[in-house]
Design goal:
About 50% of the residues lie in helices and about 0% in strands. The two termini are about 30 Å apart. The radius of gyration is 17 Å and the shape is globular. The protein has helices at about 5-20, 30-35, 50-60, 70-80, 85-100, 145-150, 160-170, 175-180, 185-205, 210-220, 235-255, and strands at about 160, 210. It has a two-stranded antiparallel sheet with strand order 1-2. The chain has one domain (about 5-15, about 45-120, about 140-255): Chloroperoxidase-like (Chloroperoxidase). The chain has 11 helices and 2 strands, in the order H-H-H-H-H-H-E-H-H-H-E-H-H. The chain is mainly α. The structure holds protoporphyrin IX containing FE (HEM). Belongs to the chloroperoxidase family. One of its GO terms (molecular function) is peroxidase activity.
Length: about 260
């Protein structure tokens, strides 16, 4: 019933939940913003459709050229840059390589491999033809889509869980998506909610995140000034926020 990748992700989640997230909590680096200034990419650097991984490369938590990234570099980059717990960093690192069917090292360009982690109905990227394995075009966020995402903010100051749910329902029910007859399977729908759950938790208070920050994050792939992770972002916290997004989506879809 499940693919091998789906089984791996489920097992990794169960292992992570069984692990005491708090006891593994890493310490946030104190002088991260000094050690990790923002350096925009050059045209020679590889970048991915993931604004978070691109931001890690732009701030030097990952190799700035976005190439030859080892398991260890990705794992430590997620912990140092975002304050992820060890179980969550393990899940994203090994789950990511597995879904991408990628033998290390990894280039950020590999991350755009269609239907690996990449999925349809993205909030920031247009869907692309399935016969392209590495759609370069897909790496740049689509400004029209982003403006629609920002317009989903109910107070024009923050993006809340409810706003994210509204944006996801909008994307998943958009006419071009339905007409193109492309699918968003359960695993990728979960990944799509998880991406925004991570953003809400790492850069907000898990309920809302600043719109000004989101603009800088999606458009410049830049972390906040004087950034250092404020709290540990663990699996349970992320799963809880993703569940709330899903619950709001379900209630929005009710006739
Ligand atoms: C804490 C770490 C991470 C955060 C906060 C994060 C956040 C995000 C966000 C907000 C998006 C845009 C979602 C959208 O447009 O709907 C995204 C996209 C993406 N992320 Fe990440 N991500 C993280 C880690 C990763 C990892 C480890 C991988 C893979 C190894 C990955 C792969 C991707 C891919 C492929 C996309 C593009 C999805 C698409 O548009 O089809 N991300 N991520």
């Amino acid at each position: 019933m499940f693919t091998r990748s789906a089984k791996f992700v489920v097992v990794a989640i169960l292992l992570g939940v069984l692990t005491t997230v708090k006891s593994f909590a890493p310490q946030a680096p104190l002088i991260a913003s000094v050690q990790h200034p923002y350096v925009p990419p050059t045209t020679d650097d590889d970048r991915s459709p993931c604004p978070a991984l691109n931001a890690l490369a732009n701030h030097g938590y990952l190799p700035h050229d976005g190439r030859h990234i080892t398991h260890s570099q990705l794992f430590h980059g997620l912990i140092d840059g975002f304050g992820l717990s060890y179980p969550l960093a393990t899940l994203l690192t090994f789950g990511g390589y597995t879904l991408l069917r990628q033998v290390p090292p990894l280039s950020l360009l590999d991350i755009s491999r269609v239907n690996g982690v990449e999925h349809n109905c993205s909030l920031a990227h247009n869907d692309i033809p399935w016969d392209h394995e590495y759609p370069r075009l897909h790496v740049t966020a689509d400004v029209c889509l982003l403006n629609k995402l920002f317009a989903d903010s109910s107070d024009q100051r923050t993006l809340s869980i409810e706003d994210v749910a509204r944006a996801r329902v909008r994307r998943e029910s958009s006419p071009e998506y339905k007409n193109a007859n492309v699918t968003l399977d359960a695993l990728h729908a979960e990944i799509a909610r998880g991406e925004m759950a991570l953003v809400l938790g790492i850069f907000g208070d898990s309920n809302e995140v600043s719109l000004d920050f989101l603009k800088r994050f999606f458009l410049n792939e830049q972390l906040p000034d004087n950034w250092r992770p404020r709290a540990t972002q663990g699996l349970v916290k992320t799963a809880r926020t993703a569940r709330k997004i899903r619950a709001h989506m379900d209630s929005l879809r009710k006739p």
